[in-house]
Amino acid sequence: MKAIRAERRGRPEVLAKVDLPMPEIDDHAVLVRLHAIGVNYADVMCREAAHPSMQPPPIVVGCEGAGIVEACGAAVRDHQPGDRVGIYSPFGGAYAEWISVPAHYALPLPATMSFEDGAAFTHVYLTAYHALRTLGRAQVGDRLFISAAAGGLGTAILQLAKAWSMEAIAGVGSDEKRSFLAGLGVEHVVNYRREDVASRLAEITAGQGPDLVIETVGGELFETLQRALAPLGRLVTVGVAGGIEPRPDVGTLLSKSAVYAALNLSVIFARKRELIPPSWRDLCDLYMKGTLQPVIGHRFRLDEAAAAHELLESRRSTGKILLFP
Hints:
Elements: E1 2-6, E2 15-19, E3 29-39, H1 41-47, E4 59-60, E5 64-72, E6 84-88, E7 98-102, E8 106-108, H2 115-119, H3 122-135, E9 143-146, H4 152-163, E10 167-172, H5 175-183, E11 188-191, H6 197-204, E12 212-215, H7 219-228, E13 234-237, H8 250-256, E14 259-262, H9 265-271, H10 276-288, E15 296-301, H11 305-314, E16 320-324
Parallel strand pairs: 9-10, 9-12, 10-11, 12-13, 13-14, 15-16
Antiparallel strand pairs: 1-2, 1-4, 3-5, 3-7, 3-16, 5-6, 6-8
């Protein structure tokens, strides 16, 4: 089969097209033929040997996709060949024509969901859901700040916030992305590279600060946001796209009686898997009602994976980036 492997740690050019044997399955796994593949910042971290949950290169990168179940292990009861599924693979392996994953990492797609939407939905919307609800304890009326809000995860969080009647404030790094989100109907957008974030948040929230922050950048922005939290606020780290790890400050959090948490979706799949089916049902119900719709911004062939990574790292992308075998 054709696959894209990070041959060594490095820039996007270390991604190489390779021919590999078909994946094998054990009794508890399924073999899926991928029709669309999601590109995530976790893939960049994997390529750079910086992801805490993934093995370093050489590795076939990729943690999200959608396709058709072709074979099932002897102990698999929830799937059968021909099923349409979205897959989450914290083990990597999704930049390929085929992938093998434990059966509970393959989730049934709604009949109306395309493979494109499935590849832009599975990892991203589950991450958004558990960042907001499981760790962030999202409530109706919460004032929510989302960093990197114009990307695939950011737009998913914005949609869920609207569905759950939260007041969303979107953080972006460019005026182009501000315009992009304004075009999607987002009222409050803050350019954290050009504006005083603390002042803008105080202005938008009448001096109270955000009740909940979903943060994916780290560094100076993280420090500003933890100081800006409302009393009893919650701050959830979902990624570190800026490259500088967040530094939670106990004194600052104590001054607000605030809570800090960090989400790793792979832990929920591995250790709290009972949380996945009900959250997936909730998300699929919202999709079928038309409330959720992945924003797909860029499409590449599988052998253009290096170009897709270059675009993601340039901070010029909007919405979700997809690859197609």
